Amino acid sequence: MAPSKTYSDNSKRPTPEAISIVGASVAGTWQALAFAQAGCPVTLYERHSGDLVGATSYWAGGMLAPDCEAEVSEPLVARLGHRSLALWRDALPGTRFEGSLVVAHTRDRADFERFARLTPGHARLDAAGVAALEPALAGRFRDGLFYAAEGHVEPRRVLPMLYRRLAELGVVLRFGEEVAPHELPGTVIDCRGLAAQDALPELRGVKGEVVIVESRDVTFTRPVRLLHPRWPLYVIPREDGRFLIGATSIESEDDRVSVRSALELMTAAYALHPAFGEARIVEIGAGLRPAFPDHAPRVTVEGRILRVNGLYRHGFLLAPALAELTAAFVVDGQQDDEVIHAGAPAHRRAPEEVLS
Amino acid sequence: MLTFYGQEVASRLLIGTALYPSPTIMQQAIKASGAAIVTVSLRREAAGGKAGDAFWSLIRDTGARVLPNTAGCRTVREAVTTAELARELFGTPWIKLEVIGDDETLQPDVVGLVEAAALLTREGFNVFPYCTEDLTVAGRLIDAGCEVVMPWAAPIGSAKGIVNPAPLALLRARFPDVPMVIDAGLGAPSHAAHALELGYDAVLLNTAIAKAGDPVAMAEAFRLAAEAGRTAYEAGLMAPRDFASPSTPVVGTPFWHAATS
Fold first, then answer.
1. Quick one: average pLDDT of B72-81?
2. How high is the ipTM of this complex?
3. Do B46 and A258 touch (CB under 8 A)?
4. Contacting residues for B226 by C-beta, under 8 A, at least 6 apart
5. Among A31, A67, A308, B165, which one is least packed by beta carbons within 10 Å?
6. pTM
7. Chain A: residue nearest B157 by CA?
8. What mean pLDDT is reported for chain A?
9. Which of B86, B157, B175, B69 is nearest to B123 (CA)?
10. Measuring CA to CA, which residue among B116, B47, B2, B198 is closest to residue A250?
């Protein structure tokens, strides 16, 4: 995408300028934080209530795993992901990031070696190493890969925490309000996820199904990925003995969970540790990940509306770095060519804002 | 020219559309492979309404002909229902028929396969059955109306290449006029070349390309290998012999020395 000289006009905009953000899932919440920290007055709109039931972030795993994701992702995801990890550390000073662990059964050795070849930043562990990190897995796996630089957050806990931070910074939070980005005044950051398909025709939904279980018999300190040729899965420990088992990846915009997917997820968890057979099912649900065809995120500039989208399965991994780049673009006119794209100038208000 | 159900086919490499890092890479890999036919696995839940539309249109954009697949179906009824949904969704009578008999190896249930093939043929489908190298099964599929037969090289996703070349060579020799595609189990371009050298008309694969470190480069490698294998078959391969046969006679070596050395 060729950079347009019109972009530099942004630097001449008077600051601080008022910013409206649509969507308070992880992408929009971080945008609000970045703009508020840059000194802009910010209003954040969200059609759901404050607990985000129904939003994709509600079902997210919250893994911050830029090294593991290199298996299937463009280098851009790793670059933004490592920056985001630093921003999460700054935002959550009391939180320890414990890395992540990858294991495979002996018969899936080929998948294990392939994963090791395609991902950086890991140390190889033997059985004793696996047991030292996660005692619950002692005696179950002969090899492991440990990604020490990675971490995870609990989406349903950190988003409310960030909302409180936003309120302290003077951000106006308007939950339960459905607004159209082009009807809002001033600079608008559209973070509606899949709901932005009306403006971003390339966007599609990729279904991800998860199961949340509760077990007193297993304890993990960090996310554990089990490689399998057909059913790769991760199990993420949460508070109160809960675990999120995820996630399928299905080319469908249907948002219900199929019996087959539930069986596959729970069978894979049982293969990771038989104690999951006795776990209680707490919730089963699905979210639709918003994805562009290249599975890379984009900030599409359409005049005064900036559409932040395509975070796909990396919402929590990419949101902080994308917010930082978006705010730097709007406030300081700095343009990251890999992320900031000129879009079709739809919904424009004034002709002079049309990008060439 | 190779034809499937009366349609001329420009490439002897057919590839799948699953497991790629992204649809963009899938599209680039299809282009690099030169494949004129791509298989698409249909999950029941993705068939209703607009559920999977965005992905299907990314596949249609490649210009390749779609061969829908009843991947993962375990019963005749399930396979027939999935085939009917696929015909409605993609507007084609072509169907790659998979009836899985074993969850571990994904080995075809050949009994269910023959039954489903007969049912679907009566409904007007053009069936591409995924089967084993068994001669009798292939015969029954042809009797049921299949004009193309697709025996495996090895279990799906196993990357072992052709594990039973002798029965596959026999199958090829017994049905010389039926288009036959080696489907599943190919891991390396040399495996694809081997299949075409045996006289098979085409190969079909997915995982070896989609899960390569660079799927687009691997697609290109398979394209070249399929061309090499077919060209070699047409050129006439040298038959293996049980002992070395020097191309230049070693004049002057007494034959009794050759026999004892």
1. 90
2. 0.80
3. no
4. B11, B12, B13, B192, B193, B196, B202, B203
5. B165
6. 0.85
7. A229
8. 89
9. B86
10. B47
Check A254 against B46: CB less than 8 A apart.
yes
Nearest to residue A103, comparing CAs of A116, A90, A87, A119? A116
Measured between CB atoms, which of A114, A254, A293 is closest to B58?
A293
The upper half-sphere exposure of residue A328, i.e. CA atoms within 13 Å in the direction of its Cβ, equals 12
The pLDDT > 70 percentage for chain A reads: 92
Place of tokens 């080995």: B107
| Nearest residue of chain A to residue B212 (CA atoms) | A114
Query: Bridge partners of A189?
Result: A21, A306
Cβ burial of B41 (10 Å; 0-12, 13-18, 19+) is buried
Are residues A293 and B23, on separate chains, in Cβ contact within 8 Å? yes
How far is it, in rounded angstroms, from Cα A304 to Cα A273? 51
CA–CA distances in Å: residue A150 to residues A8, A57, A141, B131: 36, 19, 21, 44
- Please state, rounded to an integer, the average pLDDT across all residues of chain B: 89
Length of chain B, in residues: 261
Predicted confidence (pLDDT) at residue A5 exceeds the cutoff of 60? no
Tokens, residue A69 = 């994701």
List the domains of chain A with CATH numbers.
Answer: 19-61+154-201+293-353 (3.50.50.60), 100-148+204-291 (3.30.9.10)
Positions of B marked active-site: 96
Residue A51, pLDDT above cutoff 90: no
- Considering only alpha carbons, which residue of chain B is nearest residue A250? B46
Residue A254 to residue B159, Cβ atoms within 8 A: no
Q: Which of B22, B46, B50 sits opposite A250 (nearest CB)?
A: B46
β-sheet with A204-214: strand ranges across = A123-126, A143-147, A100-104, A224-227, A233-237, A242-246, A204-214, A280-291
By Cβ distance, the residue of A203, A258, A295 closest to B45 is: A258
pLDDT digits (tens, 9 = 90+) for B139-168: 999 999 999 999 999 998 889 999 999 999
The pLDDT score that the predictor gives to residue A17 is 84
- Answer positive or negative: Cα dihedral of B112, B115, B120, B121: positive
Chain A touched by B63 (CB under 8 Å)? no
